[in-house]
Amino acid sequence: MSYTRAGSDKVRVHHKSENRQADRAHNTTERAGEGGQGDSMTSRGRKPLKYCLFFFFLVSCAVSREISPPYKPGVEVLVQQLTDQPYSVHILDNSRYLVRVNMHSRWIELNAQWADALMRKDPNLLRAILAHEIAHDKLGHRYALADDRHALQALELEADEEALRILHARGFSPWDYVRAMKMLKEIEDKNPSSSREQYYSSHPYAGERLEKIEAMIITLGLSPKIPNGGTEKPEWKVGYVWKYNWKGPKGSGTLTREIIREDYCAEVRSWIVKIGKNEFCYTKDLLGELAVMTDGKLITKRTPPRSFVSWPLEVGKEWRDTYLLENAQEKSSRRLVIRRVVSDIEEITIPAGKFAAFKIDSYDQSGGGGLVTEYWYSPEVKWLVKLRDTLSAGIREEELISFNVS
C-alpha cells in the first residue's frame, strides 16, 4: 500500500470524498536441452538487476525530472494490459519510489532506473507490481492512520489478492506477482536501510506475506495444486520410459528416452538414458546432464554437469548454470552461462494428457541474455512434459505422448 505524510507522525491514504488538495498521490512502498536442445543463442544484452536497483535503498537528494526513455511505450502497454482505465504514464529520473499512482488524476509515475532494470530483466515482474497499485485504486483504498498497523496491512493483503485476480483475468500468471515479491525481498535483505522500519509499519513482513500470497493463488483456484518449494528430485529407476513428439526447422518425428542402466560416466555414477543411437549420462545425485556417448565413445562432456533443474523446485527460484562444453570429436570447447528461472506453475495439456507442471525459462548469459529454452517439469511424470528451444533457424518443440515411471 502507498502512503503520503500527513503531519509529523501519521501516514494517510485519502478517501475519495476528501478535497483535491488532500487527495494527493498514492505512493507505493513496494520499493524499490537435451536431444536436440541448443546450448547458445544471441540476443540483446542485459544489465545485472541488483546493481541497477541498489540505489533505491538510499535516500536520494537529487531532484526528480520526467524523461521519455525508449522503453516508455513498453511500460504503457503493460498498464493497458491490466486495466481499461485511461492512466497516463510518467517516468521520473531519481524518483524515490518504484511506482506512485495518483488516484485523482489517474497517472502512474515510475522510477526510471527501476523501470529500465525491470524492463530489461523481465517485464512480467513490473506488470505484476503495477497490478498491485492498480488494485489499490480499483478497491478504493484511501485512508488509514499510521499507528493502525493492522488496518494498513489488511489493505495491502486486499490489494495483493485483487492484483492476483487482475493478472489471472487478463491472461497473465499470478505467479509473476510471487516472483516480484521475492525479488523485492531479496533486494531488501541484501541492502537493508532505515526505510525498512517505516515500510513494515504498514506492510506485512515479507516471508509471511509471500506465504499468504501463495495460499491465495491456490485458494482462488488460479493455479494447479503443486506444493511450491516441496518438489524434490525424483527417484529414477532402470526401465523408466518417456516418448515425445518433436517438430522443428529440420522436420518432425518421435523420440524415446529410456533409462537403460546405472553406470559410471566420466568417473561419475550416472543414469544412462538412451535416445536413438546416443546415450546420455545424468548424474545420480542431481540429474545433471554430464555427457553424451555413441557406440561407447564420448561425443560431448559438460563440466560441471548441465543442471536443468535445481531441487527443490519453487516459483521464483533462479540459478546460474555455468559449465564447460567439450566436443571430443571436434576437439573444441566453450564455456556457457545459462540463467534459469522457475517462472510459473501451469496446467498443461499435451498428447499424454493434462499435467500440473513447473515452467522453467533459460536465458543465455554467454550469448546476450536472451530466452533460449522453455521447459515444463511434472512431478507426476518425473521429468519434462514439454520443451521449446529457440534456435537460430527457428523453434523446436517436444511434447510428451506417453510415459512409464512405475
Structure notes:
With 406 residues, the chain is of the alpha+beta class. It has 2 domains: 216 residues, no CATH class; 164 residues, YmcC-like fold, CATH 2.40.360. It is built from 8 helices and 19 strands. A 12-stranded antiparallel beta barrel has the order 8-9-10-11-12-13-14-15-16-17-18-19. The protein has a 5-stranded mixed sheet with strand order 3-6-7-5-4. It has a two-stranded antiparallel sheet with strand order 1-2. The termini are far apart. The N terminus is likely disordered.
- Count of folded domains: 2
- Termini gap: 49 Å
Mean pLDDT: 82
Give Rg in angstroms: 24 Å
Primary descriptors:
406 residues, alpha+beta, 2 domains, 5-stranded mixed sheet, 8 helices, elongated, disordered N terminus
Describe the structure concisely.
With 406 residues, the chain is α+β, with helices and mostly antiparallel strands.
Q: What's the arrangement of secondary structure elements?
A:
Layout (H helix, E strand, L loop, with lengths): L3 E2 L5 E2 L13 E2 L21 H5 L11 E3 L4 H11 L5 E6 L5 E4 L4 E5 H10 L1 H17 L9 H21 L5 H16 L4 H6 L5 H14 L21 E8 L2 E15 L2 E8 L2 E6 L5 E6 L2 E10 L11 E10 L4 E19 L2 E12 L6 E8 L4 E9 L2 E11 L2
